[in-house]
Design goal:
The complex is a heterodimer of chains A (282) and B (409). With 282 residues, chain A is mainly alpha-helical. Chain A is built from twelve helices and one strand; from the N terminus they run βαααααααααααα. Strand 1 of chain A pairs antiparallel with strand 4 of chain B.
Chain lengths: 282, 409
C-alpha cells in the first residue's frame, strides 16, 4: 500500500462563501442515486397500491378541478379541453410542491445519517427532488395518454419542453436548498410549509388561465418562477396562452436567483448543521 | 508503514453553548429583530465552549492509536472532526487514505427495505462503490448469517440479525484508516467483542486505527500508542502503558469521579451527584435484560437533607427516552437522608432491552432543584432471558421488554 496512491483530503474550516462543488457531487453520484432510490422504494412500499399512487394523486386533483373550476366556475380557456389544460400545469406543480414539502424536512429526517457519516449535505435535498422527478416522468406518460384520448398531436414546440423542465428543476432545487437549510435552524419552518404551498398554488396559473392577470402585470407575475414553467408547458403542448419573452426572462431570472442564493446559503449554514441537529432533539 | 496517515495541526473546535442547547424558532428571531432591529443577534454573546484546543498530532500508517480521557475531554469530537462529520473551527488535518468508522454501524438502514436493499443503501452511505458492494455481497450475507431472510424487510429482523447485518456491511468496508468510538458503538457485549476482533484484524493488516474507549484492557491490548486528552487538549502522548498510567494517576489524584466535578449541571447544589455505578446480578458481569440490576448514585449534601426526590431517565442511542425511574413513582419517600451516602435504585427484573443507554439524574430537595445532570452515566445492557423463553422482541419495538401472557378461550 503506497501512500502516494491514497486519496488525500484536508479537514479545515471552510470559507463562509462557497458555491456548489460539482466535482464532489459527481464523486458522490452513486450515493445520490441510492438515496433517491430509497425514497422511491419506501414511498411505494408504504402504500398498498404501490406505484399507482404516483398517478392516483394528480388524477384525483384533476377530477376535482375539472368539476369545480372547469364546469361550475366556467374557467374554460381557449381551444383546449379543461382537463388537459389543468393536467399540463398540475404535473410540474406536483414536482415543485413535493420539492417544497419534502426537501424542507429532509435534513431533519436524515439526521442519523448526517450526524454519523460525512457526505456533501446538499445531496439530501437533491435526492428528494430526484425522487419526485421520477413521479413527474410517470405522470408525463399519463399526459401523453390524455393527449391521445383528446386527439391532440404533439406540436413541434414540444421540443422546448426539456428547457422548461430544466427551469422547473432549477426553481425546485433553489426552493429546496433554502427551506431545508432554514428548517435545520428554525424548526417552525416545517409548520409554515403547508400554508406556503397552498398560497403558491393559487399564485400560479394552474386552475385558471394567465389571461386573468392584466398583461402589464405579467412580467411581475412571472417573478414566481412556476408561472413561467406552467405557462411554458401549456404553450409548448397546446400553443395557447401568452408566453412573452418578458415572462420567461423574469421566471428564469428568479429561478436562477433562488438557485444560486439557495446554494450559497445552504453551503454557508451546512457548516453548523451537525452541531445544531445533534442537540436539537433533546 | 512509516509514512504519515494523519497529520493534525493546531486543530480547534468551538461550540456556541446557545447553539448546543436548542434550535430556535424563526418566529422568535423575526419578532426579536422587529422589536430591536439594530441590535446584533443575541447568539453572538453566547458562551463559547472549546471542545478541542490547539491539537497537534502525527499518526503514521499502520499505527493503532488509543485516545483516552474523561467524559467531555474531546475524544469523540476529535473523531467527528477527523471523519469530517463536523468542521473544525481552527487549524487543519491532512488525511491520507479513506476513512471508515465503526461508529456508523447500521447507519442508513431503513426498516421498510429488505436486507438486500439495505446492504446496498448502507454500503453506499459508508462510501462503498456499487461494484464493490456487488463483489462483496455474498460474503456480507454469509458473515451476517441472514441468507434466508435477505428479501425480508429488516423491520421483521430480530435485534441480533439486524446488528449482524449492519456490522457485516461495515466490516466489508476496507478503509485505510478506521475510527472506532466504543461509547457510540451500538449493540450488546457480544457485538462489541466482535467489533474489537475486527479492529484487531484491521490492525494486523497494517491499517491505521484510532480507538476511543473507556475499556482500558482493550486499549492496552490493541494500541501501541496512546494520547491522553483533557479539556480539549493533548496532555500526554507516547507508549500506551505510560500514557495510561498517567491517566490513572490523574483520576486517582483528583479523588472524585468525573461526575462530581462536571460543570454542565443545574441546581442549587445542596445535593451533588458524585458517582453513578451499575451492578448486575453477578459481580464481574454487566447488567442483563431480565436479571437483577442495581443503580447506585453516590452523593454529598451540605447537611442532612429533608424531603428528597430523585429520578433517573434512560435514553437510547438515538436520544429517545427509554425508561424512567423515581422514588415518587414507587411511593418511597426520602424524608431525611444523611449528608453523604448513596441512593440506590434496584430492579428485580431489568426490562431494558440489550443496548447502550445514557442516564440522566435529577434531584430536588424540598421541591427545589438541587442537582440535574444529563448524560451522567452510561449503562450497557447485555442479552438476557427476560421472558424465560430465551427470546427477545425484534428490533424496532421500543427499548423495554413488557411482561405479558397469552391464553386462548
Amino acid at each position: 500500500m503506497q501512500s502516494s496512491h491514497l486519496p488525500i483530503f484536508e479537514v479545515r474550516p471552510s470559507s463562509a462563501w462557497r458555491m456548489l462543488d460539482v466535482r464532489e457531487l459527481w464523486a458522490y453520484r452513486e450515493l445520490i442515486y441510492f438515496l433517491a432510490w430509497r425514497d422511491i422504494k419506501v414511498r411505494y412500499k408504504q402504500t398498498a397500491i404501490g406505484i399507482a399512487w404516483a398517478l392516483l394523486q394528480p388524477l384525483a386533483m384533476l377530477l376535482v378541478f375539472t368539476i369545480f373550476f372547469g364546469r361550475l366556475a366556467g374557467l374554460s380557456p381557449q381551444g383546449v379541453p379543461y382537463p388537459l389544460f389543468v393536467f399540463a400545469a398540475l404535473i410540474p406543480w406536483q414536482l415543485f410542491s413535493r420539492a417544497v414539502t419534502e426537501s424542507t424536512s429532509s435534513l431533519v429526517t436524515d439526521q442519523r445519517l448526517i450526524t454519523r457519516v460525512y457526505f456533501p449535505r446538499i445531496i439530501v435535498p437533491i435526492s428528494t427532488i430526484i425522487a419526485a422527478f421520477v413521479d413527474f416522468l410517470i405522470c408525463c406518460v399519463l399526459l401523453v395518454g390524455l393527449l391521445l384520448i383528446y386527439g391532440q398531436l404533439l406540436r413541434p414546440t414540444s421540443l422546448l419542453l426539456p428547457a422548461l423542465i430544466l427551469l422547473m428543476l432549477i426553481a425546485a432545487l433553489g426552493v429546496g436548498f433554502w427551506l431545508s437549510a432554514l428548517n435545520v435552524e428554525y424548526r417552525d419552518v416545517m409548520y409554515t410549509v403547508p400554508f406556503l404551498n397552498q398560497l403558491w398554488f393559487f399564485i400560479t396559473p394552474i386552475v385558471y388561465p394567465i389571461t386573468v392577470v392584466p398583461a402589464a402585470l405579467r412580467p411581475l407575475y412571472g417573478l414566481n418562477p412556476m408561472v413561467g414553467v406552467v405557462e411554458g408547458f401549456r404553450w409548448a403542448l397546446f400553443g395557447t396562452g401568452d408566453v412573452s419573452v418578458g415572462l420567461i426572462i423574469s421566471s428564469t431570472t428568479s429561478a436562477l436567483f433562488l438557485f444560486f442564493t439557495g446554494c450559497v446559503w445552504f453551503r454557508r449554514r451546512e457548516r453548523t448543521f451537525v452541531d445544531i441537529i445533534g442537540s436539537g432533539g433533546r | 508503514m512509516g509514512s504519515t496517515a494523519i497529520s493534525i495541526s493546531r486543530l480547534g473546535k468551538c461550540y456556541r453553548l446557545g447553539e448546543l442547547q436548542k434550535y430556535r424558532a424563526l418566529r422568535d428571531v423575526l419578532s426579536d429583530s422587529l422589536r430591536s432591529p439594530f441590535r446584533r443577534k443575541s447568539s453572538r454573546s453566547d458562551q463559547l465552549l472549546w471542545a478541542l484546543k490547539d491539537i497537534s498530532l502525527e499518526i503514521k500508517h499502520g499505527e493503532v492509536v488509543g485516545l483516552i480521557g474523561r467524559n467531555g475531554a474531546g475524544k469523540s469530537t476529535l473523531l467527528k472532526v477527523l471523519s469530517r462529520i463536523t468542521e473544525p473551527t481552527t487549524g487543519s488535518a491532512t488525511i491520507h487514505g479513506r476513512v471508515g468508522s465503526l461508529l456508523e454501524v447500521g447507519t442508513g438502514f431503513h426498516p421498510e427495505l429488505t436486507g438486500r436493499e439495505n446492504i446496498f443503501l448502507s454500503g453506499a452511505i459508508l462510501g462503498m462503490r456499487k461494484k464493490e458492494i456487488e463483489l462483496n455481497f455474498d460474503s456480507i450475507v454469509d458473515f451476517a448469517e441472514v441468507a434466508k431472510f435477505i428479501d425480508t424487510p429488516v423491520k421483521h429482523y430480530s435485534s441480533g440479525m439486524y446488528v449482524r447485518l449492519a456490522f457485516a456491511v461495515a466490516a466489508h468496508l476496507e478503509p485505510e484508516i478506521l475510527l472506532v468510538d466504543e461509547v457510540l458503538a451500538v449493540g450488546d457485549a457480544t457485538f462489541q467483542k466482535k467489533c474489537l476482533g475486527k479492529m484487531g484484524d484491521v490492525a494486523k493488516a497494517g491499517r491505521t486505527v484510532i480507538f476511543v474507549s473507556h475499556n482500558m484492557a482493550a486499549i492496552q491490548n490493541l494500541c501501541d500508542v496512546a494520547h491522553l486528552l483533557s479539556h480539549g487538549e493533548v496532555v500526554a502522548s507516547g507508549k500506551t502503558a505510560d500514557v495510561m498510567s498517567r491517566y490513572l494517576t490523574d483520576v486517582a489524584e483528583s479523588g472524585e469521579q468525573t461526575l462530581g466535578t462536571r460543570l454542565d449541571r443545574r441546581g442549587d447544589g445542596r445535593l451533588r451527584f458524585l458517582e453513578f455505578r451499575t451492578t448486575g446480578a453477578n459481580p464481574g458481569t454487566g447488567v442483563m435484560c431480565g436479571s437483577e440490576a442495581r443503580f447506585e448514585i453516590k452523593y454529598r449534601g451540605v447537611e442532612p437533607l429533608r424531603n428528597v426526590h430523585i429520578s433517573m431517565g434512560f435514553f437510547n442511542v438515538y436520544g429517545d427516552g427509554a425508561a424512567y425511574a423515581s422514588n415518587d413513582l414507587v411511593g418511597r419517600s426520602f424524608d431525611l437522608i444523611r449528608p453523604e451516602g448513596s441512593l440506590i435504585c434496584k430492579f428485580d427484573v431489568l426490562p431494558l432491552l440489550p443496548g447502550s443507554y445514557s442516564v440522566s439524574l435529577y434531584c430536588t430537595v424540598n421541591g427545589v432543584i438541587a442537582d440535574w445532570v444529563q448524560n451522567a452515566g452510561h449503562v450497557n445492557v447485555e442479552d438476557g432471558d427476560f421472558y424465560g423463553s430465551g427470546k427477545l422482541p425484534p428490533n424496532g419495538y421500543g427499548s423495554v421488554a413488557v411482561a405479558h401472557d397469552w391464553y386462548s378461550q
